[in-house]
Amino acid sequence: MVVTHHAGRWTLEDRFAAAWHYLPVEVPPGSHSLRAELEYERSGAIMDLGCLSPAGFRGWSGGARRSFVIGPDSATPGYLPGELEPGIWQVMIGLHRVPPRGAEYRVSVEISTAAGELGAEPTPERLPPLTERPQARDLPAAAGLRWLAGDLHTHTVHSDGVMTVPELARFAAGRGLDFIAVTDHNTISQHAELPAAAAAHGIVLLPGQEITTEGGHAGAIGNTSWVDFREPPDAWLTSTEEGGGLLSINHPIGGNVSWALPMQRRPPLIEVWHWSWLDTRWTTPIGWWLAWHPAAIPVGGSDWHRPGSDAPPGSPTTWVQAEAADPAAVLAGMRAGRTAVSASRDGPVLLRVGDELIASEADGTILAGPAGPKARVRGSLAKFPADIGCHRLVDATGAVLALCG
Protein backbone atom coordinates (compact mmCIF):
# COMPACT_ATOMS: atom_id res chain seq x y z
CA MET A 1 0.00 0.00 0.00
CA VAL A 2 1.38 3.39 -1.05
CA VAL A 3 0.15 6.41 0.92
CA THR A 4 0.45 10.08 -0.07
CA HIS A 5 -0.35 12.94 2.33
CA HIS A 6 -1.04 16.61 1.70
CA ALA A 7 -1.79 19.18 4.41
CA GLY A 8 -1.91 22.93 4.76
CA ARG A 9 -4.18 25.92 5.09
CA TRP A 10 -6.30 27.36 2.31
CA THR A 11 -6.69 31.12 2.52
CA LEU A 12 -8.96 33.70 0.96
CA GLU A 13 -6.02 34.59 -1.30
CA ASP A 14 -6.02 30.99 -2.57
CA ARG A 15 -9.72 31.31 -3.35
CA PHE A 16 -9.15 34.63 -5.10
CA ALA A 17 -6.45 33.01 -7.25
CA ALA A 18 -8.62 30.05 -8.34
CA ALA A 19 -11.81 28.22 -7.41
CA TRP A 20 -10.12 24.83 -7.89
CA HIS A 21 -6.78 23.57 -6.64
CA TYR A 22 -4.92 20.35 -7.42
CA LEU A 23 -2.92 18.02 -5.18
CA PRO A 24 -0.66 15.60 -7.10
CA VAL A 25 -0.54 11.87 -6.40
CA GLU A 26 1.83 9.49 -8.17
CA VAL A 27 0.17 6.21 -9.20
CA PRO A 28 2.79 3.52 -9.92
CA PRO A 29 2.38 0.95 -12.72
CA GLY A 30 0.39 -2.10 -11.63
CA SER A 31 -1.81 -0.19 -9.17
CA HIS A 32 -5.22 -1.76 -8.60
CA SER A 33 -7.33 0.81 -6.74
CA LEU A 34 -7.16 4.21 -5.10
CA ARG A 35 -8.82 5.74 -2.05
CA ALA A 36 -8.71 9.47 -1.22
CA GLU A 37 -10.02 11.23 1.89
CA LEU A 38 -10.38 14.95 2.62
CA GLU A 39 -10.57 16.41 6.11
CA TYR A 40 -10.82 20.13 6.88
CA GLU A 41 -11.96 22.69 9.42
CA ARG A 42 -15.73 22.89 8.97
CA SER A 43 -16.34 26.19 10.77
CA GLY A 44 -17.16 28.59 7.91
CA ALA A 45 -15.46 26.50 5.21
CA ILE A 46 -17.00 24.42 2.42
CA MET A 47 -14.69 22.34 0.23
CA ASP A 48 -15.54 20.17 -2.76
CA LEU A 49 -13.80 16.98 -3.83
CA GLY A 50 -12.97 15.50 -7.22
CA CYS A 51 -10.34 13.58 -9.17
CA LEU A 52 -8.42 13.78 -12.44
CA SER A 53 -6.25 11.05 -13.91
CA PRO A 54 -3.54 11.53 -16.56
CA ALA A 55 -6.26 10.73 -19.12
CA GLY A 56 -8.74 13.28 -17.75
CA PHE A 57 -11.88 13.31 -15.61
CA ARG A 58 -12.38 10.46 -13.11
CA GLY A 59 -15.03 11.90 -10.82
CA TRP A 60 -16.59 14.62 -8.76
CA SER A 61 -18.64 14.54 -5.57
CA GLY A 62 -18.59 18.21 -4.66
CA GLY A 63 -19.43 18.71 -1.00
CA ALA A 64 -21.51 15.53 -0.78
CA ARG A 65 -18.62 13.22 0.21
CA ARG A 66 -15.35 13.40 2.05
CA SER A 67 -13.79 10.31 0.45
CA PHE A 68 -13.93 8.14 -2.66
CA VAL A 69 -12.62 4.85 -4.01
CA ILE A 70 -11.80 4.11 -7.66
CA GLY A 71 -11.14 0.54 -8.79
CA PRO A 72 -11.14 -1.35 -12.09
CA ASP A 73 -14.72 -2.62 -11.78
CA SER A 74 -16.44 -0.31 -9.31
CA ALA A 75 -16.15 3.15 -7.82
CA THR A 76 -17.85 5.46 -5.37
CA PRO A 77 -20.91 7.10 -7.00
CA GLY A 78 -19.78 10.23 -8.79
CA TYR A 79 -16.52 8.55 -9.89
CA LEU A 80 -15.69 6.44 -12.96
CA PRO A 81 -14.42 2.89 -12.46
CA GLY A 82 -11.63 1.58 -14.64
CA GLU A 83 -7.98 0.68 -14.67
CA LEU A 84 -5.67 3.13 -12.90
CA GLU A 85 -3.39 4.71 -15.48
CA PRO A 86 0.15 5.08 -14.12
CA GLY A 87 1.38 8.62 -13.75
CA ILE A 88 0.46 11.77 -11.87
CA TRP A 89 -3.15 11.93 -10.72
CA GLN A 90 -4.73 15.02 -9.18
CA VAL A 91 -7.06 15.24 -6.21
CA MET A 92 -9.18 18.29 -7.09
CA ILE A 93 -10.28 20.57 -4.25
CA GLY A 94 -12.96 23.15 -4.85
CA LEU A 95 -12.77 26.12 -2.49
CA HIS A 96 -16.45 26.92 -2.33
CA ARG A 97 -16.23 28.89 0.91
CA VAL A 98 -13.12 29.98 2.82
CA PRO A 99 -13.47 31.97 6.07
CA PRO A 100 -11.33 35.09 6.57
CA ARG A 101 -8.95 33.24 8.90
CA GLY A 102 -8.48 30.42 6.37
CA ALA A 103 -9.09 26.71 6.88
CA GLU A 104 -6.69 23.85 7.54
CA TYR A 105 -7.01 20.73 5.40
CA ARG A 106 -5.56 17.22 5.18
CA VAL A 107 -5.75 14.88 2.19
CA SER A 108 -4.59 11.27 2.31
CA VAL A 109 -4.49 8.96 -0.70
CA GLU A 110 -3.98 5.19 -0.46
CA ILE A 111 -3.04 3.15 -3.52
CA SER A 112 -3.30 -0.63 -3.44
CA THR A 113 -1.79 -3.20 -5.76
CA ALA A 114 -4.17 -6.05 -4.86
CA ALA A 115 -7.91 -6.56 -5.13
CA GLY A 116 -9.88 -6.33 -1.91
CA GLU A 117 -7.51 -4.04 -0.01
CA LEU A 118 -9.69 -0.96 -0.46
CA GLY A 119 -13.44 -1.16 0.07
CA ALA A 120 -15.65 -0.61 -2.96
CA GLU A 121 -19.28 0.41 -3.08
CA PRO A 122 -21.66 -2.54 -2.56
CA THR A 123 -23.98 -3.42 -5.42
CA PRO A 124 -27.52 -2.21 -4.60
CA GLU A 125 -30.30 -4.76 -4.35
CA ARG A 126 -32.49 -5.10 -7.43
CA LEU A 127 -35.88 -3.46 -7.07
CA PRO A 128 -39.03 -5.27 -8.20
CA PRO A 129 -40.85 -3.61 -11.11
CA LEU A 130 -44.02 -1.64 -10.46
CA THR A 131 -47.23 -3.63 -10.54
CA GLU A 132 -49.40 -0.50 -10.90
CA ARG A 133 -48.77 2.96 -12.25
CA PRO A 134 -50.98 5.94 -13.10
CA GLN A 135 -52.71 5.78 -16.46
CA ALA A 136 -51.19 7.99 -19.15
CA ARG A 137 -53.15 11.12 -20.06
CA ASP A 138 -54.75 11.18 -23.49
CA LEU A 139 -53.84 14.65 -24.77
CA PRO A 140 -54.42 16.00 -28.28
CA ALA A 141 -51.25 15.89 -30.38
CA ALA A 142 -50.17 16.33 -33.97
CA ALA A 143 -50.33 13.32 -36.29
CA GLY A 144 -47.68 10.75 -35.43
CA LEU A 145 -46.79 12.43 -32.13
CA ARG A 146 -47.83 12.07 -28.50
CA TRP A 147 -47.33 14.09 -25.35
CA LEU A 148 -44.94 12.59 -22.79
CA ALA A 149 -44.79 13.77 -19.18
CA GLY A 150 -41.39 14.22 -17.58
CA ASP A 151 -38.90 16.06 -15.43
CA LEU A 152 -35.56 17.45 -16.65
CA HIS A 153 -33.83 18.03 -13.31
CA THR A 154 -33.20 15.20 -10.81
CA HIS A 155 -30.33 13.94 -8.65
CA THR A 156 -29.18 10.58 -7.27
CA VAL A 157 -26.46 9.19 -4.99
CA HIS A 158 -24.03 9.98 -7.80
CA SER A 159 -24.01 13.54 -6.43
CA ASP A 160 -26.01 14.82 -3.45
CA GLY A 161 -29.27 12.89 -3.83
CA VAL A 162 -30.34 9.96 -1.66
CA MET A 163 -31.82 7.59 -4.25
CA THR A 164 -29.94 5.18 -6.46
CA VAL A 165 -30.65 5.36 -10.19
CA PRO A 166 -33.05 2.36 -10.05
CA GLU A 167 -34.82 3.83 -7.03
CA LEU A 168 -35.30 7.15 -8.81
CA ALA A 169 -36.51 5.43 -11.99
CA ARG A 170 -39.09 3.40 -10.07
CA PHE A 171 -40.21 6.41 -8.02
CA ALA A 172 -40.69 8.62 -11.08
CA ALA A 173 -42.51 5.88 -12.99
CA GLY A 174 -44.81 5.44 -9.99
CA ARG A 175 -45.70 9.12 -10.24
CA GLY A 176 -46.86 8.59 -13.82
CA LEU A 177 -43.88 10.15 -15.60
CA ASP A 178 -42.78 8.91 -18.99
CA PHE A 179 -39.24 10.31 -18.80
CA ILE A 180 -36.76 12.03 -16.52
CA ALA A 181 -33.28 13.45 -17.02
CA VAL A 182 -30.77 12.28 -14.41
CA THR A 183 -28.64 15.39 -13.93
CA ASP A 184 -26.14 14.80 -11.16
CA HIS A 185 -23.74 17.63 -10.35
CA ASN A 186 -20.60 17.85 -12.51
CA THR A 187 -20.38 14.11 -13.18
CA ILE A 188 -21.53 11.44 -15.63
CA SER A 189 -20.93 8.33 -13.52
CA GLN A 190 -24.71 7.77 -13.39
CA HIS A 191 -24.95 7.33 -17.16
CA ALA A 192 -23.74 3.73 -17.15
CA GLU A 193 -26.72 2.70 -15.01
CA LEU A 194 -29.46 4.38 -17.06
CA PRO A 195 -30.25 1.76 -19.75
CA ALA A 196 -30.78 -1.11 -17.30
CA ALA A 197 -32.84 0.98 -14.88
CA ALA A 198 -34.96 2.38 -17.72
CA ALA A 199 -35.72 -1.11 -19.04
CA ALA A 200 -36.46 -2.51 -15.59
CA HIS A 201 -38.92 0.21 -14.62
CA GLY A 202 -40.46 1.21 -17.94
CA ILE A 203 -39.38 4.84 -18.06
CA VAL A 204 -37.16 6.86 -20.41
CA LEU A 205 -33.99 7.99 -18.61
CA LEU A 206 -32.17 10.81 -20.35
CA PRO A 207 -28.46 11.14 -19.65
CA GLY A 208 -27.62 14.52 -18.23
CA GLN A 209 -25.46 16.49 -15.85
CA GLU A 210 -26.00 19.69 -13.94
CA ILE A 211 -23.00 21.90 -14.56
CA THR A 212 -22.69 23.49 -11.15
CA THR A 213 -20.65 26.60 -10.35
CA GLU A 214 -20.92 29.51 -7.95
CA GLY A 215 -22.08 31.77 -10.79
CA GLY A 216 -24.95 29.57 -11.95
CA HIS A 217 -26.14 26.09 -12.87
CA ALA A 218 -26.89 24.66 -16.32
CA GLY A 219 -28.39 21.34 -17.39
CA ALA A 220 -26.64 19.45 -20.19
CA ILE A 221 -29.35 17.06 -21.40
CA GLY A 222 -28.50 14.13 -23.65
CA ASN A 223 -24.77 14.80 -23.72
CA THR A 224 -23.04 11.55 -22.77
CA SER A 225 -19.56 13.05 -22.35
CA TRP A 226 -18.36 15.05 -19.37
CA VAL A 227 -18.75 18.82 -19.64
CA ASP A 228 -15.85 20.61 -17.96
CA PHE A 229 -17.48 22.93 -15.43
CA ARG A 230 -14.20 24.82 -14.98
CA GLU A 231 -14.53 26.28 -18.48
CA PRO A 232 -16.64 29.38 -19.33
CA PRO A 233 -20.34 28.67 -20.03
CA ASP A 234 -19.97 29.23 -23.78
CA ALA A 235 -17.69 26.17 -23.76
CA TRP A 236 -20.43 24.20 -21.98
CA LEU A 237 -22.82 25.07 -24.78
CA THR A 238 -20.32 24.05 -27.47
CA SER A 239 -19.50 20.77 -25.71
CA THR A 240 -23.17 19.91 -25.26
CA GLU A 241 -23.96 20.69 -28.90
CA GLU A 242 -21.03 18.58 -30.11
CA GLY A 243 -22.43 15.66 -28.10
CA GLY A 244 -25.86 16.05 -29.68
CA GLY A 245 -27.42 17.39 -26.49
CA LEU A 246 -29.31 20.47 -25.37
CA LEU A 247 -28.20 22.97 -22.73
CA SER A 248 -30.60 24.62 -20.29
CA ILE A 249 -30.11 27.54 -17.94
CA ASN A 250 -31.33 26.11 -14.64
CA HIS A 251 -33.32 28.07 -12.02
CA PRO A 252 -32.10 31.44 -13.33
CA ILE A 253 -34.00 33.12 -10.47
CA GLY A 254 -33.02 30.86 -7.59
CA GLY A 255 -31.71 32.77 -4.60
CA ASN A 256 -27.98 32.27 -4.12
CA VAL A 257 -27.84 29.90 -7.11
CA SER A 258 -29.33 32.36 -9.63
CA TRP A 259 -27.70 32.72 -13.05
CA ALA A 260 -25.04 35.44 -13.05
CA LEU A 261 -22.70 34.39 -15.87
CA PRO A 262 -22.24 36.15 -19.22
CA MET A 263 -22.59 34.23 -22.49
CA GLN A 264 -21.89 35.15 -26.09
CA ARG A 265 -24.56 32.72 -27.33
CA ARG A 266 -27.82 31.69 -25.71
CA PRO A 267 -28.61 28.04 -24.89
CA PRO A 268 -31.77 26.64 -26.48
CA LEU A 269 -33.57 25.74 -23.22
CA ILE A 270 -34.49 27.66 -20.09
CA GLU A 271 -35.81 26.16 -16.87
CA VAL A 272 -38.60 28.70 -16.49
CA TRP A 273 -40.40 26.62 -13.86
CA HIS A 274 -38.40 25.29 -10.91
CA TRP A 275 -39.69 24.18 -7.53
CA SER A 276 -38.34 27.44 -6.05
CA TRP A 277 -41.04 29.41 -7.92
CA LEU A 278 -42.94 29.35 -4.64
CA ASP A 279 -45.54 31.97 -5.53
CA THR A 280 -46.58 31.53 -9.15
CA ARG A 281 -48.28 34.93 -9.10
CA TRP A 282 -44.77 36.35 -9.39
CA THR A 283 -43.86 36.92 -13.03
CA THR A 284 -40.11 37.14 -12.34
CA PRO A 285 -39.12 33.81 -14.02
CA ILE A 286 -41.16 34.64 -17.12
CA GLY A 287 -39.74 38.15 -17.20
CA TRP A 288 -36.19 36.76 -16.99
CA TRP A 289 -36.93 34.30 -19.79
CA LEU A 290 -38.24 37.00 -22.11
CA ALA A 291 -35.37 39.37 -21.30
CA TRP A 292 -32.64 36.70 -21.59
CA HIS A 293 -33.80 34.88 -24.74
CA PRO A 294 -37.46 35.15 -25.82
CA ALA A 295 -36.96 32.33 -28.36
CA ALA A 296 -35.66 29.92 -25.69
CA ILE A 297 -37.72 26.75 -25.27
CA PRO A 298 -39.39 26.63 -21.82
CA VAL A 299 -38.90 23.56 -19.63
CA GLY A 300 -39.35 22.74 -15.97
CA GLY A 301 -37.58 20.74 -13.29
CA SER A 302 -38.22 19.60 -9.74
CA ASP A 303 -34.53 19.50 -8.77
CA TRP A 304 -35.35 16.36 -6.76
CA HIS A 305 -32.75 15.32 -4.17
CA ARG A 306 -34.54 13.81 -1.18
CA PRO A 307 -37.86 13.81 0.66
CA GLY A 308 -38.53 17.02 2.52
CA SER A 309 -36.01 19.21 0.70
CA ASP A 310 -37.37 19.64 -2.83
CA ALA A 311 -40.52 19.04 -4.84
CA PRO A 312 -40.98 15.41 -5.98
CA PRO A 313 -40.34 14.47 -9.63
CA GLY A 314 -42.97 15.93 -11.92
CA SER A 315 -43.49 19.06 -9.81
CA PRO A 316 -43.49 20.83 -12.23
CA THR A 317 -44.04 18.54 -15.20
CA THR A 318 -42.35 19.14 -18.55
CA TRP A 319 -44.44 17.90 -21.48
CA VAL A 320 -42.71 16.97 -24.75
CA GLN A 321 -44.58 16.12 -27.96
CA ALA A 322 -42.49 13.26 -29.33
CA GLU A 323 -42.62 10.55 -31.96
CA ALA A 324 -41.79 7.79 -29.46
CA ALA A 325 -40.92 7.15 -25.85
CA ASP A 326 -37.14 6.98 -26.19
CA PRO A 327 -34.27 9.39 -25.42
CA ALA A 328 -33.64 10.41 -29.02
CA ALA A 329 -37.31 11.21 -29.66
CA VAL A 330 -37.65 13.22 -26.44
CA LEU A 331 -34.56 15.25 -27.34
CA ALA A 332 -35.88 15.78 -30.88
CA GLY A 333 -39.19 17.03 -29.50
CA MET A 334 -37.45 19.51 -27.23
CA ARG A 335 -35.12 20.66 -29.99
CA ALA A 336 -38.16 21.36 -32.17
CA GLY A 337 -39.74 23.42 -29.38
CA ARG A 338 -42.63 21.03 -28.76
CA THR A 339 -42.78 21.58 -25.01
CA ALA A 340 -45.18 22.74 -22.34
CA VAL A 341 -44.92 23.02 -18.55
CA SER A 342 -47.57 22.46 -15.91
CA ALA A 343 -47.63 22.54 -12.12
CA SER A 344 -48.26 18.78 -12.01
CA ARG A 345 -48.85 15.79 -14.26
CA ASP A 346 -52.57 15.60 -13.59
CA GLY A 347 -53.58 19.27 -13.38
CA PRO A 348 -54.43 21.84 -16.06
CA VAL A 349 -52.11 21.83 -19.07
CA LEU A 350 -51.75 24.24 -22.01
CA LEU A 351 -50.48 22.76 -25.27
CA ARG A 352 -49.51 24.27 -28.59
CA VAL A 353 -50.59 21.91 -31.38
CA GLY A 354 -50.31 23.24 -34.92
CA ASP A 355 -52.19 26.53 -35.14
CA GLU A 356 -54.15 25.94 -31.91
CA LEU A 357 -53.66 26.35 -28.18
CA ILE A 358 -55.38 23.52 -26.32
CA ALA A 359 -56.28 23.76 -22.62
CA SER A 360 -56.94 20.38 -21.01
CA GLU A 361 -58.62 19.85 -17.61
CA ALA A 362 -58.58 23.62 -17.15
CA ASP A 363 -62.27 24.55 -16.88
CA GLY A 364 -62.70 27.92 -15.17
CA THR A 365 -59.13 29.09 -15.65
CA ILE A 366 -58.07 32.10 -17.69
CA LEU A 367 -55.92 32.02 -20.82
CA ALA A 368 -53.33 34.81 -20.74
CA GLY A 369 -51.05 35.84 -23.58
CA PRO A 370 -48.15 38.29 -23.90
CA ALA A 371 -50.56 41.23 -23.50
CA GLY A 372 -52.44 39.75 -20.53
CA PRO A 373 -55.75 37.89 -19.98
CA LYS A 374 -57.56 37.09 -23.21
CA ALA A 375 -60.18 34.34 -22.72
CA ARG A 376 -62.03 32.22 -20.19
CA VAL A 377 -61.49 28.45 -20.46
CA ARG A 378 -64.72 26.48 -20.54
CA GLY A 379 -64.97 22.71 -20.44
CA SER A 380 -62.42 19.95 -20.00
CA LEU A 381 -60.92 20.56 -23.46
CA ALA A 382 -60.88 24.06 -24.95
CA LYS A 383 -59.20 25.31 -28.13
CA PHE A 384 -58.00 28.80 -29.06
CA PRO A 385 -56.08 30.37 -31.97
CA ALA A 386 -52.35 29.97 -31.37
CA ASP A 387 -50.92 33.48 -31.28
CA ILE A 388 -47.16 34.00 -31.09
CA GLY A 389 -45.45 34.19 -27.70
CA CYS A 390 -45.67 32.81 -24.20
CA HIS A 391 -49.18 31.84 -23.09
CA ARG A 392 -50.31 30.82 -19.62
CA LEU A 393 -53.27 29.36 -17.81
CA VAL A 394 -53.88 31.34 -14.61
CA ASP A 395 -56.42 31.21 -11.83
CA ALA A 396 -58.47 34.10 -10.49
CA THR A 397 -55.54 35.37 -8.41
CA GLY A 398 -53.17 35.39 -11.42
CA ALA A 399 -51.22 32.30 -10.27
CA VAL A 400 -49.77 30.34 -13.18
CA LEU A 401 -51.09 26.78 -13.53
CA ALA A 402 -49.54 25.91 -16.91
CA LEU A 403 -47.58 27.58 -19.70
CA CYS A 404 -46.17 27.07 -23.17
CA GLY A 405 -43.93 29.03 -25.53
Descriptive key words:
single chain, 405 residues, mainly beta, Jelly Rolls, TIM Barrel, 13-stranded mixed β-sheet, four-stranded antiparallel β-sheet, 24 strands, 13% helix, globular
Question: How would you portray this structure in words?
Answer:
The protein is mostly beta strands and 405 residues long. The protein has 2 domains: 2-112, Jelly Rolls, CATH 2.60.120.380; 146-346, Metal-dependent hydrolases (TIM Barrel). Helices cover 13% and strands 38% of the residues. It has helices at 12-17, 165-174, 194-201, 233-242, 284-292, 327-335; strands at residues 2-10, 20-27, 33-40, 46-53, 56-62, 67-70, 87-97, 103-112, 146-154, 179-182, 204-213, 216-221, 246-249, 269-274, 297-301, 317-322, 339-342, 349-353, 356-360, 366-369, 372-376, 381-385, 391-394, 400-404. It has a 13-stranded mixed β-sheet with strand order 15-14-13-12-11-10-9-16-17-24-23-20-21, sandwiched between helices. Strands 1-8-3-6 form a 4-stranded antiparallel β-sheet. Helix 2 packs parallel to helix 3 (194-201). The protein is globular and about 70 Å long. The N and C termini lie far apart (59 Å).
Q: How many discrete structural domains?
A: 2
User: Could you say what the CATH architecture of the largest domain is?
Assistant: Alpha-Beta Barrel
Number of E-type strands: 24
CATH topology label of the largest domain: TIM Barrel
Secondary-structure-derived class = mainly beta
Biggest sheet, strands in spatial order?
15-14-13-12-11-10-9-16-17-24-23-20-21
Q: Any low-confidence stretches, pLDDT <50, length ≥5?
A: none
Can you give the helix content as a percent range?
10-25%
Give the N-terminus to C-terminus distance in angstroms. 59 Å
Order of helices and strands: EHEEEEEEEEHEHEEHEEHEEHEEEEEEEE
Mean of pLDDT: 96
Question: What is the CATH first-level class name of the largest domain?
Answer: Alpha Beta
Number of helices: 6
- CA gyration radius, whole angstroms: 23 Å
Q: Strand count, sense and closure of the main sheet?
A: 13 strands, mixed
Write the CATH homologous superfamily of the largest domain: Metal-dependent hydrolases
What percentage of amino acids are in beta strands?
A: 35-45%
Query: Shape, please?
Result: globular
